[in-house]
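Homework help board

Subject: predicted structure for assignment chain

Our instructor gave us this sequence and asked us to write out the predicted structure in token form, then describe one feature. I got the tokens but I'm not sure how to describe them. Can anyone check?
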Amino acid sequence: QYAVHFWINSKDNVVADNLFINNDRHIGFGLSHQKKNVKHNHSGGAIRNNVILHAKTTPFADTGIALEQSPNTLIENNIIYLNHNYPRAIEYRFPETSNVVIKNNQVNKQISSRDGGTADVAQNELSVSEEVSLAAFSKKAVELHITSIY
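My token output:
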């Protein structure tokens, strides 16, 4: 599962200024399963200024950020470095995911649609190096006053 995941009638959540390390999935808004009394899976909000690193291959390694039925969402200024075989750093899934903006992210994998999601994707760097990612990781750790990681 995701380290941070909002769904089932969630709205306008913001995930910002975090450091994520070696999660199989890192940040998810929405979920593809429909249940009774669900107005929307997730709507609105932003995912910004996060540093996401996945430095090892695990059997369940997946995307850094995913929108699943999450319209009107902003993803900006994140750094994502994934050292595994899953092809996408950021993905937006299903036709309900629309009016999404994905900009100014630095990633080493694809940013792409899956199963009919749509987004305005602009000004992203798709070949961030491990060195740049580790420097961003170190800077974010200092900002968050993290002195040791297990």
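Reply (TA_rk): Your tokens look well-formed. For the description, you could write something like this. The longest strand covers residues 25-30. That's the kind of observation they're looking for.
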